[in-house]
Write a structure and sequence with these properties.
3 helices, globular, Clorobiocin biosynthesis protein CloN5
Length: 88
């Protein structure tokens, strides 16, 4: 799975399912997710579930942290890396 493909899918999911009015006005793949209020614990769980069910990638517990989930690009890079070793 390519990073740009994952970025597109994650950005669409976040825009459609996680953002509410006014959060943040200019959302991109480099928006700081926690700092800009896009992610909280519930939304993080929803995002991880989306990655598991829709992208068929399991995120190891050790990788669930602010660095790996800083922005969509960081998440996409991690997911692309994990998809290469995750059996389908």
């Amino acid at each position: 799975m390519r990073v740009d493909e994952v970025e597109d899918r994650l950005c669409n999911f976040i825009r459609e399912r996680l953002l509410t009015d006014g959060e943040p006005e200019e959302f991109t793949h480099i928006t700081a997710l926690f700092e800009d209020g896009v992610l909280d614990s519930l939304r993080l769980a929803m995002l991880i579930n989306f990655i598991r069910t829709e992208l068929a990638v399991e995120i190891p517990y050790q990788r669930v942290n602010r660095d790996e989930f800083h922005d969509v690009h960081a998440i996409s890079t991690m997911v692309a890396d994990l998809s290469e070793v995750t059996p389908r």
